[in-house]
Structures are given as C-alpha cells and as structure tokens.
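Need a sequence for this fold. Nothing fancy.
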C-alpha cells in the first residue's frame, strides 16, 4: 500500500493499493493494443490534445499547484511556476515536432536516399518527486507526439500527482491508454520492462537506482536514458558581475528547497574573494522566507520526506566531522532546514555525494587550472555555471568542464529548447529539444535506385 504524507504538516493525504500482477499484465496488454492504433494516428491527431493539455494546465494551475505542494512540500509559488513551464513545453513540442520528425533527404549517389523517424512502442518512465509534473511532461510529451505511448511509475509520495496527470491527458483528448500511471512497487519494475510493448526506459533519480534500471533495460535489450544526480559547480571568477552572481547563486541553491539535480551545490571562489563571498551570501539569506508552504510569500519549503531529511542531517554532520567548517549553520525543525553554507577542502567525502537540501558547499581556488581540476574531480557531470565579464573566456572555460550543460552569467535551468542530460555518474542520453524527441524513435535509413 502507498501512503502519501504532507511533509509540512505531517498529516496523511491519501492511501492507494498497488496493482496486482494480473492487473499489471492487463494494463500492459491494453497498452499494446492502444499502441497499434496510436502509432498510425496523424500528427494533427496528436498535436490537438497536446495543445489542449497545455491550456488545461494553465486553467487548473491553482488546484494542481496545491496538490504538488501538499505532496512534496515546495512553496506554492514554485508549484505554479512548474505548471506554467509544463504548458510552455506542450506548446514548444506541438510547434516543432512535425518538422523535426519529417523525413530528411540525404545527398548521395543513389536515386533515392532519406532518413525516416518512426515510433517504436511504449516508453516506461520511472520518475522522481521533486518536480512531479515537469519530470513526467518532459519525457511524455515528445514521445506521444512521435507516436509512442507512455507508461509511468511515479514516486510513491507523489502518487496523487501521477494519477492526476493521467486524468489531465485523458481530459485533453488523448485516447484512453495512451498515457497510463501504474501503481507498482520496485519489484514489479522488471515485469514492466520485459513486456513486448515496452521499447524504451527513462529514469530520473539516484545513480545507484539508475544503475539497477539500466541493468534491467540491458537484460531485455531495451534502450534506456538516465538522468541522475548532480554536484554542479557554480564558478565565480575574480572579474565578474558580482551582484548578479550572488543573487543567481542563492536562487539556484535554494530553489525547490535545494532538492534539484542541477542546483548550484559547489561554489568556487577565488581565494582573495572568499571573505566577500561569505559576507554577501549571509546578507542574501536574510531575504529568505520560510514557513507555510501554501503561502505565496514563502520562498523556502521543506524536505519532501522524513527519511530524506534524516539523510540530509547525517550528511551535514559527517561533512563537519571530516573537516568541513560551518560558515552558516543549517538548523533543522521537522522537515524544514534553514539555509546553510559549509567551507570544505577537496578531500572531503561530501564532494563525492549529492546534497539534496538548502546547504551549499564553498571551495576556493588559486588559478584557472586549479579550478578546472577541482570542478572535474566530481564523479558527477550534469552542469556548471560560470560568472565572468568576458564571455569569450567563459566559453573557453566551458570547453574544459566535463559536464552536459554550462550556463554563462545565467542560472543553470532545464529549457525545452535545449538538450538536457549529463556525463559520468550523472547518466546518459538527453531529454528536451529535438535530441530528446529522437531518443526513442527508430531512425530508419532508406536508399536505392530505380
């Protein structure tokens, strides 16, 4: 049984029964039948419900935002922003997918040569709780427009969101079964992956769980995409737009209560700028508003589950025991953590982990090569942010960083227009943009002569 708990109040929201094995098989067989019809639908048949879905998200954003906030504890203002971003994604793919999926002619010595992009079946998504709508929409929408169908295992603590998303898809006009939320436990994941209709698996979560999912996908010869953790560097060069950098760093570290894979987690400042950074960071924290997550004035929410809060508390404690210096103490009250900042050296084990909470790590560097070496020492490689006055320098530095995305004088964010994903322990494959649209299609080459 699944029980959803409001992480701010501690009150139970709802409970749900897991599907039995025979119910899972029925759902998968139904999906296989639905796919046979959906794969032959016209692009217009797919585009119309996609646009309607984007409209529904805005029309119903107030009630949907309350659901998100109740289940995972982010401030209501951030839940509203998440839904608006999902609506933008619907419009983006409705506008761009038909052209992207059109056959592409290849110049060759043959009379005819072109590449086609064909749907393949069901894409099974195993999604996390931190962005319970956005994480689902960013894999579901491009796949549905490509003619695939979608299966979802959502995080247990956001089960209500998962079920509501299915209802929204159906209300928007997507045929019954094209999008299914399956209430299953971890042992049943293999049952889904091995089914004949499933041709792709996409996972967002921890590196450890991602490795298990990848192994199962490989066992059954199904393609997988993994979007795993991050330990992103936020680099502040000595010569930079200082006030903008500080404001962006605070926003990036504290958004979603710090529970974001692409958040600024390791702040790198030049040795001579360290005291200035700490002073201004502390000053910026005075503007943070904790409290009732349903209040639109609240800017910092809570950790999504008690066990996650316990883990964060233990990480902080261990980091300090192994040489970290608490510059701004993070205090826990229930699932709420006040913002913190810890100075660490390069040998602290915390730098090999991902901190999911409003606690930043600050490191100093001596020169450019020292900076590059420290940034790249992480096992993760999701993204990085560079703040500098010379953009050409920023671009040159970006080429030295082993990550999937680099933002220069901007906050690192996912955007429907840009491919998103990482390297090393941050996973493989890409979501969003045309690249994400192509992850689970069959790229078919056709050539010949009369």
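Here you go.
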């Amino acid at each position: 049984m699944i029980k959803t708990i409001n992480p701010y109040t501690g009150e139970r929201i709802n409970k749900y029964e897991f599907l039995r094995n025979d119910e899972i098989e029925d759902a998968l067989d139904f999906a296989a039948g639905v796919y046979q019809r959906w794969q032959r639908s016209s692009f217009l048949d797919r585009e119309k419900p996609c646009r309607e879905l984007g409209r529904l998200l805005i029309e119903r954003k107030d009630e949907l935002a309350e659901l998100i906030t109740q289940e995972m504890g982010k401030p209501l203002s951030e839940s509203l922003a998440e839904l608006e971003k999902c609506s933008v994604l619907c419009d983006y793919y409705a506008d761009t997918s038909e052209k992207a999926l059109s056959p592409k002619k290849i110049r060759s010595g043959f009379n005819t040569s072109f590449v086609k992009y064909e749907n393949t079946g069901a894409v099974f998504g195993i999604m996390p709780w931190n962005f319970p709508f956005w994480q689902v929409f960013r894999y579901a929408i491009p796949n549905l427009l490509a003619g695939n169908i979608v299966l979802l295992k959502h995080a247990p603590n956001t089960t209500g969101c998962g079920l509501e998303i299915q209802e929204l898809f159906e209300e928007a006009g997507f045929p019954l079964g094209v999008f299914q939320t399956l209430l299953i436990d971890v042992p049943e994941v293999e049952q889904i992956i091995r089914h004949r209709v499933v041709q792709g698996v996409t996972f967002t979560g921890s590196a450890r769980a991602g490795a298990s999912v990848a192994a199962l996908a490989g066992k059954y010869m199904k393609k997988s995409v993994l979007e795993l953790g991050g330990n992103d560097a936020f680099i502040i060069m000595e010569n930079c737009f200082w006030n903008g950098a500080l404001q962006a760093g605070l926003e990036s570290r504290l958004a979603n209560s710090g529970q974001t894979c692409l958040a600024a987690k390791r702040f790198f400042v030049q040795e001579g700028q360290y005291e200035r950074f700490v002073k201004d960071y502390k000053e910026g924290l005075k503007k943070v508003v904790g409290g009732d997550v349903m209040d639109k004035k609240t800017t910092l929410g809570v950790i999504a589950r008690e066990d996650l809060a316990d883990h964060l508390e233990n990480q902080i404690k261990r980091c300090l025991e192994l040489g970290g210096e608490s510059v701004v103490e993070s205090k826990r009250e229930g699932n709420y953590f006040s913002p913190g900042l810890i100075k660490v050296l390069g040998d602290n084990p915390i730098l090999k982990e991902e901190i999911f909470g409003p606690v930043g790590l600050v490191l100093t560097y001596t020169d450019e090569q020292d900076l590059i070496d420290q940034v790249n020492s992480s096992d993760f490689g999701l993204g990085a942010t560079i703040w500098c006055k010379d953009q050409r320098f920023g671009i040159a530095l970006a080429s030295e960083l082993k990550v999937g995305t680099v933002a220069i004088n901007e906050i690192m964010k996912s955007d429907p227009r840009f491919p998103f994903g990482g390297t090393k322990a941050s996973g493989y494959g890409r979501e969003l943009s045309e690249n994400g649209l192509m992850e689970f299609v069959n790229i078919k080459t056709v050539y010949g002569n009369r």
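For context: The mean pLDDT is 97.
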